[in-house]
Amino acid sequence: MNITVLGEARYPSPLSHFVSDKIRVLLNAVIDPDAPPSDDLLLEVAGPREMLYFDPKKTRAGIVTCGGLCPGLNNVIRSLVLQLHHVYGVREILGFVNGYQGLDPWRGAEPIPLTPEFVEDIHKGGGSALNTSRGPVDVSVAVDNLIRRKIDILFVVGGDGTQRGGAALYHEAKLRGHALAVVGIPKTIDNDVPFVSRTFGYLTAVEEATRILTCAHTEAHSVENGIVVVKIMGRHAGFIAAGATVASQDVNFTLVPEVPFVLDGEDGFLAALKRRIVKRGHAVILVAEGAGQHLMSGGEKQYDASGNLKSKDIGVFLRDRIHTYLKEQDIPFTLRYIDPSYLVRSVPAGAEDAILCDFFARNAVHAAMAGKTGLVIGQQHDIFTHVPIELLASRKKQLDLNSPEWQGVLSATGQEFAHFPA
Amino acid sequence: MNITVLGEARYPSPLSHFVSDKIRVLLNAVIDPDAPPSDDLLLEVAGPREMLYFDPKKTRAGIVTCGGLCPGLNNVIRSLVLQLHHVYGVREILGFVNGYQGLDPWRGAEPIPLTPEFVEDIHKGGGSALNTSRGPVDVSVAVDNLIRRKIDILFVVGGDGTQRGGAALYHEAKLRGHALAVVGIPKTIDNDVPFVSRTFGYLTAVEEATRILTCAHTEAHSVENGIVVVKIMGRHAGFIAAGATVASQDVNFTLVPEVPFVLDGEDGFLAALKRRIVKRGHAVILVAEGAGQHLMSGGEKQYDASGNLKSKDIGVFLRDRIHTYLKEQDIPFTLRYIDPSYLVRSVPAGAEDAILCDFFARNAVHAAMAGKTGLVIGQQHDIFTHVPIELLASRKKQLDLNSPEWQGVLSATGQEFAHFPA
Amino acid sequence: MNITVLGEARYPSPLSHFVSDKIRVLLNAVIDPDAPPSDDLLLEVAGPREMLYFDPKKTRAGIVTCGGLCPGLNNVIRSLVLQLHHVYGVREILGFVNGYQGLDPWRGAEPIPLTPEFVEDIHKGGGSALNTSRGPVDVSVAVDNLIRRKIDILFVVGGDGTQRGGAALYHEAKLRGHALAVVGIPKTIDNDVPFVSRTFGYLTAVEEATRILTCAHTEAHSVENGIVVVKIMGRHAGFIAAGATVASQDVNFTLVPEVPFVLDGEDGFLAALKRRIVKRGHAVILVAEGAGQHLMSGGEKQYDASGNLKSKDIGVFLRDRIHTYLKEQDIPFTLRYIDPSYLVRSVPAGAEDAILCDFFARNAVHAAMAGKTGLVIGQQHDIFTHVPIELLASRKKQLDLNSPEWQGVLSATGQEFAHFPA
Amino acid sequence: MNITVLGEARYPSPLSHFVSDKIRVLLNAVIDPDAPPSDDLLLEVAGPREMLYFDPKKTRAGIVTCGGLCPGLNNVIRSLVLQLHHVYGVREILGFVNGYQGLDPWRGAEPIPLTPEFVEDIHKGGGSALNTSRGPVDVSVAVDNLIRRKIDILFVVGGDGTQRGGAALYHEAKLRGHALAVVGIPKTIDNDVPFVSRTFGYLTAVEEATRILTCAHTEAHSVENGIVVVKIMGRHAGFIAAGATVASQDVNFTLVPEVPFVLDGEDGFLAALKRRIVKRGHAVILVAEGAGQHLMSGGEKQYDASGNLKSKDIGVFLRDRIHTYLKEQDIPFTLRYIDPSYLVRSVPAGAEDAILCDFFARNAVHAAMAGKTGLVIGQQHDIFTHVPIELLASRKKQLDLNSPEWQGVLSATGQEFAHFPA
User: Fold this and answer.
1) How many Å lie between the alpha carbon of B126 and the closest alpha carbon of chain C?
2) What sequence ranges are listed for the domain Phosphofructokinase (chains A, B, C, D) (predicted)?
3) How does DSSP classify residue A346?
């Protein structure tokens, strides 16, 4: 699939090795003679190009980080800056602060000039040195600002909504006759972006979640009929829950959005939990935040004092239902609830995520300097790719229930309760 | 202060060095010519005694762990067993399970025979290998059971309520003519036991809380006007909150039971928080669970669906009050609440707590073998002592507001808001 | 590529989903129109098969771990046992101890019966619960023993030499008319096995090496002209060195086997180090143990008191050459040498390696139960495969100098010194 | 014991609470009726004084860190700066770099102006933000420089040699008529400073050493007759070795300077090691660097190529002797040697050391502002004190072999071999 380019690349690259625009990577590397013909989408391979669209000496780049915290944001910022500065010789780099708000001069603070000195140690801490926020920006106002500040390249670090916002900026800039390269680095701690085999931050989240599950297991194991419910990130996909379950081997029930489960009845989750408690005397339950949403619909909606919808919190919902059910069943128990999300997403990137961030960032710079726009960096079969932003929205990435990831969950937990077809 | 002994010690100790019963340690090592005469309480020094009351070959010991989890419980169990077995040659050791419930044969499971093999690796995990529970036991039933099982020595690991329960067991056994040595090891993660300069688990809790405060700081620092409230253990004393504040240097407001603070008005906490947010753009608030109880009394009591009193949770209370106040003040903010208690108390002991547990346990065995009873092991000026259980209840241990601990908090936070005299 | 099978699979699998023998995975997922036709090797996809060769109720399996320590060995053992026991219902599993020595009844200790209870917590520690050793076993004696003990399946966890030994066992057993499934799980902390995109233990080693590099950076940075040389594993390939360099961003020179570098002269490493020291005042050097072997050949060989060849230790060699060179150049410096290998390889597996071990082990059981033999489990493009053992020896896996891994090293270090063509 | 003061304190303190100069702390809090009359040394209690000698607005302070790295150096620097700046209002603070070299304008770099911004995050990393070096400075040149730069207060962070150097500076300044307050913060990772119950960095070192011992245990335990020798800091005292032994419970032999042991013969260490290997199949040996020096004296001295005395390295010596001995005894074994010192001393301070550093630093500022000089901050019975530098040199601090520390080592290891009277 071809990537939009701003124009002809005319400046020689300062690098000594190149990747041709003609190289493609197969989306599907499996050959199954009994299966219908597979998807033949071919993605462009990322990497340095022989000719650049932008003259490094005259180029001005911007960086913005959006959405929730995710381990590795600072690594991405740092590698973008170092790659621009040291490898390509780009000297003017602005960091827009507080997410997309920072593109709007009426709402945000002044952007920060980014230098190798500024980013030197930022990767040693979690969070984002540019801050972050949720929500969109007025496209027209933002493009006015980008043009006024003479920004040629904008690196957008964020989820799919953020990336679509980035595409809108490019299109608006084009209408104004301003050649703006918008290159995205996909960010989702949930690992649910299509065309990216692993998003940065995901593995670090699994590592932290595993630590927390060890605590949960200790809590459950140290009292009679101890039950601990741990809620973890995963709005649309259960990758963190599945990974942490297989890594820790301490979870007895893993609930994910991909498997809408039955709560009540002999086949349901509550009865299965009761059987385990009676037999083994403790249980650890790991629930992704997007699991079991079907259970909380209908007339059950409740609002807290501030008017926020409460009933959609599956962790609290499950805790309360378990409590009520086991009381009814006259089983003594100790029930604890842990919601560690802020402690998982705010840590520095682990080594593997640090490496991944570096690769994503350096490839994003290669793409932008070559004048490519409206894309995000993807990864397929250990190869980094260029993915048109439009393509991102065309698919969803969820747990494949026949994959080792989910089969590993079933083996680790031994869980058995009814679920509806996904 | 003398310690009750079961009778004359007649068996020679297998150890090669001894501590005399006559050695005492001063409670107060400070001489202030301008102060009133100080407390002249003298505590017996712990350690091996030359003669034993119990014949190791015929002695049967029991161990029980009570109350909430605390890092180091398994280290204490392990060192008790190894000291009894290897150093004194005691071969029969029973672990009563599920706390004091385990002393009641009608409620508890069978006790576990404890051997060096059983305890070999238990200190590498958190929790208690003997499980734990809250609540008392029927003294008469328990003593029946202890006599029937021919228990000579009972090691009680728990808080002051647990220790008073242990004293009751000794008195009841004495009435029955059974010589029972009850030796306590004080357990409180809050570090609020008098006559013990530092309880085991406390330092590990501070270390974990410090890790969590780093996350809180990252969360607060990565958004505009980010506020994070962290609730930490500390029902009657703010030692963990103070220690974690000084260790992390990332906290801006530390609230403890010893300092009843004013919430409203220009001098109050909320106005101070607002001033900081306006000036610095973020804030981390660390609140001990026992802080601010005065704020939640009176007509404000609320109950949740299960009938539990809700309003006493200072963390949730503060979060809600901050939310309301800043909304009223029309200040934009992002507010997060973290309650990490289960993640703090369930980890294995750090190195220093592991050492402390070993010393407490080995001294407890020395005391018991010498026939001492109705005491807990204390620590004063780096010296381990024998503290009569009755003495424990006579004092409280709280933060001294002139101590380096609290002065360090004031310096680290720079906090300024009104408080009532403690 | 087809895999040898012991015979017709006749027993229905207890699992509910299957993978067909006909599915293949492409070795090369990249399409380059300008490149010569690529390798068209197709590997069999791993996973559960519909029919089994072995009747689980009558099957006896053995496990052996060989070679040096590697994070994850216990995870592999544990998942093999749990998969055999819980998923397939195999009840007789023997753990041969001390590596291949344990297959020889004249040299080794009795094998250990492996149960879910035995393996329950082994993954929480490093090392191997079955111990390990280097060196081969007398094939004839080992097969005698395996036949006598009625072993149907042998799982071999080890490097390529170990796996070739496993193939020899299968061939010898076949000659004796004993149907022995030998299924290997490739083990190399160096990550240098072909057909396996990442071996278990590698990521954990990178994480630990990164921690150590932080210490090295601190040491170098805290004195004037501080130089720290860190030697890390990597006999034939520099994957750990490259990964740790990119993850830590604290290394200034990374030396790997794939890049034979020049030591002396203006273009050489020593002069480049001198320039850095003069300019920046500190340097961290990370050297893979297999780097620079060409520098130590010839007349320089030296032996220690015990008769061991000393000069091949590139870490010590470099340290001494740096010392001599900078003395000659009259540059003051402080030089430290760190060899942390034992501290890197003995830790428990991190979360991602724990997951990988689980997948490798469960797929190995699937293959063995289906009667496949003479293979190892591989991984290509995130898909687990069956790789004939013979194929393993046909290729080598080393750093591709155009890959993001090595380009990331060059960017992170900025290193510039002459090297010979690889 | 009285502390030298520069003159009458005439400026009111900005603090609201004070400690009187008349308060003293007992060195010995133990009363033993059978012991000879104890030491009656009384130390001045540290803390804020009501009147200051220096006018904060006109005061200029300097800080220097000397000797080897130690966890917590940056915490000390940071708290000194924050206390001077925020609490006392001192605005001019210079950081002299590279240890005492930095006091000599002919040798060192320019000092760094220290501000709250500069020190904001330095405590999150190990090492010293001011660098460090070993060796003295020309006192006359240094005092010239201090006078020229109008330094009123010099904070000296270092060991006893460094502190004696600090006293020399004070005396020389006095001769020149310059009122220089020199206040020391004792720094020794070995914890062997008298009048200081625990030096900063020591507990962090024990924690790291314990981690390393877990690795050593895994290495020893995973092969047949595995032996691991770990060398750890402790030139004159075995506190780190003892602490790590008790904390880890994984060491089988602990060798410290205080216990000169016998190597050969049936009673010796080597025979005891052999017995353990034969009986248990593995051993972990922890040796403090200052242990066994008596074994390496006499004709055995050897020099390396650079002319350094080699034979004094007890770790290498032991490793080689064990190797030779077990070969002679015809016992198969695998022997590993680990020297992790650089990995132990370069990490950031743990929570407890972070707290300790803060207290030491803030008390040092109190003392200096009051015009006290020629002292170091000490700690006795959890109370911070003023210790005249001369007093430091008058005693040594070593392990008391009857203390819980050493008795805990004996219990943890069960070690039995001959040693000479200490």
Assistant:
1) 13
2) 60-367
3) T
Asked whether the CA dihedral D115, D116, D121, D122 is positive or negative, the reply is positive
Q: Domain A11-199+349-380 adopts which CATH fold?
A: Rossmann fold (3.40.50)
Q: Compute the Cα dihedral for D403, D409, D415, D417 and give only its sign.
A: negative
CB within 8 Å: C408 and A25:
no
Is residue B411 within 8 Å of residue D87, measured between CB atoms?
yes
Residues 239-298 of B with CB under 8 A from D: 243-244, 246-249
Task: Return residues 195-224 of C near D (CB < 8 Å).
Answer: 212, 214-216, 218-219, 221-224
B332-356 pLDDT per residue, tens: 999 999 999 999 999 999 999 999 9
Chain C residues in contact with B125 (beta carbon < 8 A): 124
**Shortest Cα distance, chain D CAs vs residue B340, angstroms:** 17
The residue type found at B241 is A
| C356 to chain A: closest CA residue | A247
Distance CA C338, CA D225 (A): 26
Chain C residue with CA closest to B125: the answer is: C124
For residue B29, give the nearest of D29, D32, D414 by CB distance: D29
Question: Three-state DSSP class for D337?
Answer: strand
What residues of chain D, 330 to 349, have a C-beta less than 8 Å from chain C? 336, 338, 340, 342-343, 346-347
* Pair D243, D189: CB distance under 8 Å: no
Does the beta carbon of A383 lie under 8 angstroms from any beta carbon of chain C? yes
Q: What is the CATH number of domain D203-345+403-413?
A: 3.40.50.460
Please name which of B217, B159, B167 lies closest in space to residue B189, comparing C-alpha atoms. Answer: B159
Gap between the Cα atoms of A73 and D47, Å rounded: 44
For chain C, give every domain's residue range: 11-199+349-380, 203-346+403-413
Strands (E) across C46-158 are located at: 51-52, 60-65, 92-95, 112-113, 153-158
Residues of chain A positioned with their CB less than 8 A from the CB of B323 = 306
Rounded distance between C-alpha atoms, residue A403 and residue A413, angstroms = 16
> What are the tens digits of pLDDT across the range D370-383?
999 999 999 998 89
Task: Count CA within 13 A, CB hemisphere, residue A282.
Answer: 16
Q: How many CB pairs under 8 A join A and B?
A: 88
Alpha carbon separation from C365 to A8, B120, C185, C360, D35 (Å, rounded):
55, 32, 10, 9, 71
Summarised one tens digit per residue, pLDDT across range D206-229 is 999 999 999 999 999 999 999 999
Q: Which of C122, C145, C5, C1 is nearest to C72 (CA)?
A: C122
- Structure token digits, residue D319: 């490793």
pLDDT higher than threshold 80 for residue B422? no
Q: Which residues of C touch D215 (CB under 8 A)?
A: 126, 342-343, 346-347
- Active-site residues of B, by number, are 190
Residues of A in contact with C86 (CB under 8 A): 411, 414
CATH architecture of B204-346+403-413: 3-Layer(aba) Sandwich (3.40)
CA distance B301 to A116: 55
Same fold, B11-199+349-380 and B204-346+403-413: yes
**Percentage of residues in chain B having pLDDT higher than 90:** 84
Q: What is the CATH number of domain C203-346+403-413?
A: 3.40.50.460
Residue of A131, A336, A347 lying closest to B342 (CB–CB): A336
Q: Does pLDDT of D259 surpass 50? A: yes
Closest residue on chain B to A215 (Cα): B346
Q: What radius of gyration do chain C's Cα atoms show?
A: 24
Place of tokens 């010991």: B61
The mean per-residue pLDDT over the stretch C279-307 comes to 79
Residue C419 pLDDT grade (very low, low, confident, very high; cuts 50, 70, 90): confident
